[in-house]
């Protein structure tokens, strides 16, 4: 079979998902209010007839293109255009689906939209992987995507979607909880590195301590997050009540403090393990050359070992940050704030749009962090980035 002919095996599933979501599942759901269940509308019914037929035909063509072995650049352009068209169509469908004069009615994305978004995103990621783009290009594409998404939201095209109405009613609280969520994720990661980095160095130097420390941190990882939050309430509450000044700096049995401490504890294992693994992979010749040059142990650590361990430390940052962004959502259960506030409020009120208001930004933060840190890891491994001792 010649190159460029035949079917693209990975495109079969994506094309099938696109066709199912376009013709068999509701594109939007029109609800009488934010809580009650609504009536689903297919894509062909959610938009004016000409627009719906044109979009459905375009999606069929996109599905067929995914089946063919087209150049990766062409596939990227097709999938990107399809993603933008589907998002813009959602805004138009929401505007058309709202009953005139009814301020209580809501229009939510239906299962067809979510499956369509998933299939096109999967195709987009598949194309990006096949292109094998450099870290710089990946970061540029991420920046372009952020600007494009920001422009879509700023334009008001999606203002009639139910989740955007939830945002409009809670904009101040949204950004306050977003900043608290970021503080929990980033702050706990920083503290974990301040503790875990020297602990990893000590574990690398002292073999018997390494096994004990890693086993203990492994045990911490097995404790469910809710249970760990609960275990921390009593000691932190005692500290707040009996240690002068503890309450003044924010230590308490419930709230941000136990959530922050739990995230730090969960973050220690990746930091310590990656530090030990990175130091063990430092070539013996590099250390021997440094000793021959008269370097002390501390000089070797900072001038030779840490620079050579940098890719491993970046990988630890990636693991910890993505883990903490997700786990910080649970902090809302003990008053720690964050985007979990909207998730659990929505679950309590049976308002799924409120759940999405907390969940979607959390997913977006994790996605952006993964792309940025993956690029940084690749930068650190690029030729010429290694440190070579004299």
Structure explained in plain terms:
- The chain has helices spanning 9-23, 43-46, 49-67, 72-97, 111-131, 135-155, 162-169, 171-205, 207-222, 225-242, 256-280, 284-292, 297-327, 340-349, 352-381; strands spanning 26-31, 39-42, 106-109.
- It is flat.
- The protein starts with 8 loop residues before the first helix and ends in a 9-residue tail after the last helix.
- It has 390 residues and is mainly alpha-helical.
- It is built from 15 helices and 3 strands.
- Helix 4 (72-97) packs antiparallel against helix 5 (111-131) and helix 13 runs antiparallel to helix 15 (352-381).
- Strands 2-1-3 form a 3-stranded antiparallel β-sheet, with helices on both faces.
- It folds into 2 domains: 9-157; 171-381, Orthogonal Bundle (MetI-like fold), CATH 1.10.3720.10.
- It is 74% helix and 4% strand.
- Residues 178-373 form the ABC transmembrane type-1 domain.
- Belongs to the binding-protein-dependent transport system permease family.
- One of its GO terms (biological process) is transmembrane transport.
List the helices and strands and how they pair.
Elements: H1 9-23, E1 26-31, E2 39-42, H2 43-46, H3 49-67, H4 72-97, E3 106-109, H5 111-131, H6 135-155, H7 162-169, H8 171-205, H9 207-222, H10 225-242, H11 256-280, H12 284-292, H13 297-327, H14 340-349, H15 352-381
Antiparallel strand pairs: 1-2, 1-3
Helix pairs in contact: 1-3, 1-5, 3-4, 4-5, 6-15, 7-15, 8-9, 8-11, 8-13, 9-11, 10-11, 11-13, 12-13, 13-15, 14-15
């Amino acid at each position: 079979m010649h190159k460029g002919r035949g079917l693209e095996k990975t495109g079969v599933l994506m094309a099938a998902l696109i066709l199912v979501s376009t013709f068999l599942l509701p594109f939007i759901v029109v609800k009488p209010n934010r809580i009650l269940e609504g009536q689903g509308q297919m894509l062909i019914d959610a938009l004016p007839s000409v627009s719906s037929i044109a979009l459905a035909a375009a999606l069929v063509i996109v599905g067929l293109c995914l089946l063919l072995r087209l150049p990766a650049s062409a596939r990227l352009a097709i999938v990107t255009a399809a993603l933008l068209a589907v998002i813009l169509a959602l805004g138009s469908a929401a505007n058309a689906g709202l009953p005139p004069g009814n301020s209580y009615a809501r229009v939510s994305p239906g299962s067809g939209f979510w499956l369509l978004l998933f299939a096109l995103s999967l195709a987009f990621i598949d194309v990006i992987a096949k292109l094998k783009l450099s870290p710089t290009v990946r970061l540029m594409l991420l920046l372009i995507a952020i600007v494009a998404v920001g422009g879509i939201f700023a334009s008001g095209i999606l203002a009639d979607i139910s989740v955007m109405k939830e945002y409009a009613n809670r904009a101040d609280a949204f950004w306050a909880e977003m900043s608290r969520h970021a503080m929990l994720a980033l702050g706990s990661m920083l503290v974990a590195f301040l503790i875990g980095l020297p602990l990893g160095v000590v574990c690398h130097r002292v073999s018997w301590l390494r096994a004990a420390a890693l086993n203990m941190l492994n045990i911490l990882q097995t404790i469910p997050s809710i249970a760990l939050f609960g275990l921390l309430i009593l000691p932190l509450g005692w500290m707040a009540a009996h240690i002068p000044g503890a309450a003044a700096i924010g230590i308490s049995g419930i709230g941000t403090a136990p959530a922050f401490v739990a995230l730090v504890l969960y973050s220690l294992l990746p930091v310590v393990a990656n530090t030990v693994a990175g130091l063990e992979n430092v070539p013996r010749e590099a250390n021997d050359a440094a000793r021959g040059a008269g370097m002390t142990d501390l000089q070797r650590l900072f001038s030779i070992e840490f620079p050579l361990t940098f890719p491993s430390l970046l990988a630890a940052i990636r693991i910890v940050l993505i883990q903490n962004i997700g786990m910080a959502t649970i902090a809302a259960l003990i008053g720690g704030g964050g985007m979990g506030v909207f998730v659990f409020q929505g679950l309590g009120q049976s308002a799924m749009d409120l759940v999405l208001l907390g969940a979607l930004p959390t997913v977006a933060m994790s996605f952006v962090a993964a792309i940025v840190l993956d690029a940084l890891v690749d930068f650190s491994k690029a030729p010429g980035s290694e440190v070579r001792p004299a």
